[in-house]
Amino acid sequence: MFLVDDILFFPAKSLLWIFREIHNAVQQEQKSESESLTTELSELYMMLETGRITEQEFDKRESEILDRLDAIQENG
Description:
The protein is rod-shaped, with a radius of gyration of 22 Å. Helices cover 91% and strands 0% of the residues. The chain has helices at 2-49, 55-75. It has 76 residues and is mainly α.
Protein backbone atom coordinates (compact mmCIF):
# COMPACT_ATOMS: atom_id res chain seq x y z
CA MET A 1 0.00 0.00 0.00
CA PHE A 2 2.86 2.38 0.75
CA LEU A 3 4.24 1.93 -2.73
CA VAL A 4 0.91 2.95 -4.25
CA ASP A 5 0.77 6.00 -1.98
CA ASP A 6 4.31 6.97 -2.99
CA ILE A 7 3.47 6.65 -6.66
CA LEU A 8 0.25 8.65 -6.31
CA PHE A 9 1.75 11.47 -4.27
CA PHE A 10 5.05 11.71 -6.17
CA PRO A 11 3.90 14.59 -8.45
CA ALA A 12 2.64 16.64 -5.52
CA LYS A 13 5.77 16.00 -3.46
CA SER A 14 7.92 16.94 -6.44
CA LEU A 15 6.08 20.22 -6.91
CA LEU A 16 6.42 21.05 -3.22
CA TRP A 17 10.17 20.35 -3.40
CA ILE A 18 10.50 22.60 -6.48
CA PHE A 19 8.62 25.44 -4.77
CA ARG A 20 10.79 25.08 -1.64
CA GLU A 21 13.94 25.26 -3.75
CA ILE A 22 12.67 28.36 -5.57
CA HIS A 23 11.78 29.97 -2.24
CA ASN A 24 15.25 29.22 -0.83
CA ALA A 25 16.93 30.64 -3.93
CA VAL A 26 14.89 33.85 -3.68
CA GLN A 27 15.77 34.24 -0.01
CA GLN A 28 19.46 33.77 -0.74
CA GLU A 29 19.29 36.32 -3.57
CA GLN A 30 17.58 38.86 -1.31
CA LYS A 31 20.17 38.32 1.41
CA SER A 32 22.97 38.75 -1.10
CA GLU A 33 21.44 41.92 -2.52
CA SER A 34 20.89 43.32 0.97
CA GLU A 35 24.54 42.71 1.87
CA SER A 36 25.65 44.30 -1.39
CA LEU A 37 23.54 47.39 -0.74
CA THR A 38 24.89 47.69 2.80
CA THR A 39 28.43 47.59 1.44
CA GLU A 40 27.52 50.17 -1.20
CA LEU A 41 26.09 52.42 1.52
CA SER A 42 29.30 52.15 3.55
CA GLU A 43 31.36 53.07 0.50
CA LEU A 44 29.04 55.99 -0.12
CA TYR A 45 29.67 57.32 3.40
CA MET A 46 33.41 56.99 2.85
CA MET A 47 33.16 58.90 -0.43
CA LEU A 48 31.29 61.71 1.33
CA GLU A 49 33.81 61.87 4.16
CA THR A 50 36.75 62.01 1.77
CA GLY A 51 35.08 64.69 -0.36
CA ARG A 52 34.81 62.58 -3.51
CA ILE A 53 31.08 63.34 -3.78
CA THR A 54 28.94 66.29 -2.74
CA GLU A 55 26.21 66.14 -0.12
CA GLN A 56 23.56 66.44 -2.82
CA GLU A 57 24.96 63.41 -4.65
CA PHE A 58 25.22 61.56 -1.36
CA ASP A 59 21.61 62.34 -0.41
CA LYS A 60 20.30 61.19 -3.77
CA ARG A 61 22.23 57.92 -3.84
CA GLU A 62 21.60 57.22 -0.16
CA SER A 63 17.87 57.64 -0.69
CA GLU A 64 17.94 55.20 -3.63
CA ILE A 65 19.87 52.60 -1.65
CA LEU A 66 17.66 52.91 1.41
CA ASP A 67 14.52 52.62 -0.74
CA ARG A 68 15.86 49.40 -2.28
CA LEU A 69 16.72 48.03 1.19
CA ASP A 70 13.22 48.86 2.42
CA ALA A 71 11.70 47.08 -0.59
CA ILE A 72 13.77 43.99 0.13
CA GLN A 73 12.71 43.95 3.78
CA GLU A 74 9.04 44.37 2.87
CA ASN A 75 9.20 41.42 0.49
CA GLY A 76 11.27 39.28 2.83
